[in-house]
Amino acid sequence: MKNLVYLPILLAFGIFLQSCSEEQPQITFEIIELEYPETKMVDVSDDYHGHVIQDPFRWLEIDTAAAVKDWVNRQNELTFDYLENLPFRSDISERLAELMDYPRYSAPRKVGDFYFFHKNDGLQNQAVIYRKKGIDGEPVVFIDPNELSAEGLVSIRLLGSSPDYRYIAYARQEAGSDWVTIGVYEVESGEKLEDRLEWVKFSGASWDDNGFYYSRYPEPEPGMELSANNQYHSVYYHRLGTDQSEDILIHEDRDRPFMYHFTYLTDDREFVIMHAAPGTDGYATYYKRNSPDDRQFKPLFEGYSNKSSVVDHVDGRFLVLTDIDADNYRLISVDPDNNLPDQWIDIISERDILLRSVSTGGGYLFASYLENAMSRIVQLGYDGTQIRDIDLPGTGSAGGFSGTSNQELLFYSFSSFLYPSTVFSFDPSTGESEPFFESELRFNPEDFTEKQVFYRSKDGTQVPMFIVHRNDVELNGDNPTMLYAYGGFNISLTPSFSASNLILLENGGIYAMANIRGGGEFGAEWHRAGMLENKQNVFDDFIAAAEYLIEEGYTSEDKLGIIGGSNGGLLVAACKVQRPDLFSVVIPRVGVLDMLRYHIFTVGKGWIPEYGSADNPEHFDFLIEYSPLHNLEEGMEYPATLIMTADHDDRVVPAHSYKFAAELQRVQGGTDPVLIRIDTDAGHGAGKPVSKIIEEQTDIWSFFFYNTQSMIQ
Question: Is 234 one of the annotated active-site residues of the chain?
């Protein structure tokens, strides 16, 4: 299959290595031919409630098949040959490496006498876990994941610690898969124990005196580890020093194999709390006494229409963050033995801004609010009396403020679009903050502008959007602009720093982030307005954001790119299909693109509360209307598209991207390229080594600048 694309041809080899005093390089754009790999079509169809839907690329779903691996190799050969020959790719790669080469820290976590934190010196593939004794102690390497894999494919995160702080559990993730292996270290000596728990997903480690609770799936069939439908997510208790085969099954639901079960302990370790969820939205909340001999959970909040999580247990009552009768959430005190709504006591009443979370530390409560998608932190007593508003460094995103009840020093992180993540210490007795780990990235934030605007969506809804650019950018409609959003699963997007985005900003580009419906920025109602039959609102909001940027002179159709990942990959693909005239570049990353079959793979069934299921005739009617795979039109001129996925993505399986790429290459009627970049030994995004991040971001920006015909300065 052949297609014509524009490829910039350098007038002279190595012209970008010339000094800045010389004349700027000239680039012409000539049409060349791209020959896409042939993708066979098979005669496969499904009958959905009387509607016959063809699925000619069904065979691409079997990612372990030899034919699929061959197709992947041929597609990657085409894609990387294209990307590696873009004229300014090496310049972008070098600048990205410079920008990311600065130390980055996590907030410390206190475990007994020790403080644990992550640090990446700059270009290390994985952050190293350090431990120091006392706040002024000398940091010592506790776990270095870089020593476990030369390619940086192993990542480590710490889980819970034992009540006596003698042991700490960790999760080991490999090649980006959601599967993790749980192990245990002794805190004082750093000795690794022999405990090894496999086939774990979506789990912590909640300790009592002798072991911990965790959640796992049954072992999948060989060869199906990354694509099989995961069922029977169950709670187990592991006694320290024993084999996993001896673990005690605490809870499973044989009647509903699709349920998720998550557990955690109250801070006093008297109760085990369990959330039972049919998907990624509402869940039921249960509790039981903390004993592996007691396997009987009692209901605290039944049904799956709401979200209620236990924050603490005080004097026989649970403190519960809930959205019951409170779309913006509230904190209530509940007596489990007299759990009637008229007996609940409001500790933090609902406000007109979102109460995103409540944490505890130093004997206080910390309420984390979102006000127009920016953090506001309030310190309160346990009776709800406000102590103070925390004075943050600016408008942005803050998180942390947690610890034991007698902890005298807490920590939090703060960042914004122009403020690299910085760790602060916080004295809860005085409210004073001090920088603890500061960023050493060398750039001047005063050279840039960040602002928030509100624009009108198709139905009149006012939607906020952040816009960031260099101070000297002129609103002449000629600026390369990247628009990003997510719009789903109650996830809130807040200002955060990205060294990668500086590539765009330094070159006179504009970065925009829209807080569209489907997210959680404005509470449960904002989320509901973008899920199930309301999903089209999400696409309308995003399209309206693009139109606003064009109408206000920030950019034009020829200079506008859109990018999104996972549910955001669905977003940009659907908008590309609905408005191919509006964008110049589209980059769907690990996207959910086949809305009729997504729920049959791995954990996809958990998204049914958000999207619906094609097995339901009412849901099928709205899913088929926007499913990107099923709405491509033959002969339509679609914008330049770089589809991105990974071979170890066992959350949104790569079959979504494979089938979408095959169909889009088949129907493309224009001259813009349709490429798919398939990363190897990588997953949905978590745990990705820095070297792969630099390669990936280099390809994104090279593809974007080239296809918007924008120069690198």
Answer: no
